[in-house]
Amino acid sequence: MTLSYLLSEIITGLKGAGVMEIIAALAGIASVWFSKREHILVYPVGLVNTIFYTYLSFSSHLIGEAAVNLYYTIISLWGWYLWNKKDEKHKPELRVTESTAREKGFQILFFGLLYVIIFFSLTYLKKAFAPGAIPWADALASASAFTGMYLMAKKKLESWYWWIITNIASIPLYFVKGFVVTSLYYIILLGLAIAGYLSWKKKIKVAA
Q1: Using CA atoms, how far apart are residues 145 and 164, in angstroms rounded to an integer?
Q2: What is the predicted pLDDT for the residue at 200?
Q3: Is the Cβ–Cβ distance between 178 and 18 less than 8 Å?
Q4: pTM
Q5: Parent domain of 175
Q6: How many domains does the chain have?
Q7: Looking at residue 131, what is its pLDDT?
């Protein structure tokens, strides 16, 4: 793949981007920015992103990503509730924390189990209903996103590790499907995820 071909595909994709994809991408960027700042708006803004991408992913045979965004929508409501809870001093009850070794082991097992389930499910769906599916890549992006979203709701530092994996996997996944705006969007999210990790890591050190 030459650079000129890549630039041509990007320009063509940008010209053909739909309004829904653009709005979803902008909402997603804003949502991650709010999560980096540990701001409650991460969830209401994020819901715009997840609902729109559920539709876009499903319509393009990215079944795993569609399932992830539907899951995002549900977990966002739960996370919104957790982040909004206040203690007796009217301060957020939930604090940014780092997982224990045992919790990290559980997270890896959780991811591994999800990857296997999603991969074999998509392999079947590819044959039966969705010939355009890419099982291994979609399963990687999906399983890591499931893990990251769950940990984000609990304000765990490790959520950013999984977001970084999700973003790296999603950049080429959406590009080959013609969603160039979304592919560029994941490049931006990758940078924000790294910044988010550093920001939350600093908060933990300050609180220690």
Answers
A1: 9
A2: 95
A3: no
A4: 0.81
A5: 17-85+98-207
A6: 1
A7: 65
Q: Tell me the longest C-alpha to C-alpha distance in the chain.
A: 60
Task: Give me the DSSP letters along the chain.
Answer: --HHHHHHHHHHHHHH--HHHHHHHHHHHHHHHHHHTT-TTHHHHHHHHHHHHHHHHHHTT-HHHHHHHHHHHHHHHHHHHHHH-B-TTSSBS---BPPPHHHHHHHHHHHHHHHHHHHHHHHHHHHHT-TT--HHHHHHHHHHHHHHHHHHHTTBTTHHHHHHHHHHHHHHHHHHTT-HHHHHHHHHHHHHHHHHHHHHHHHHHHH-
Q: Residue 60 falls within a domain, yes or no?
A: yes
CA–CA separation, 22 and 10 (whole Å): 14
Q: Is residue 28 part of a domain?
A: yes
- Under the banding of pLDDT at 50, 70 and 90, the label for residue 203 is very high
Query: Does residue 178 belong to any structural domain of this protein?
Result: yes
Specify if 69 maps to a domain.
Answer: yes
133's tokens: 């599916």
Q: Which two tokens stand for residue 68?
A: 């992830």
At 9 the pLDDT is: 56
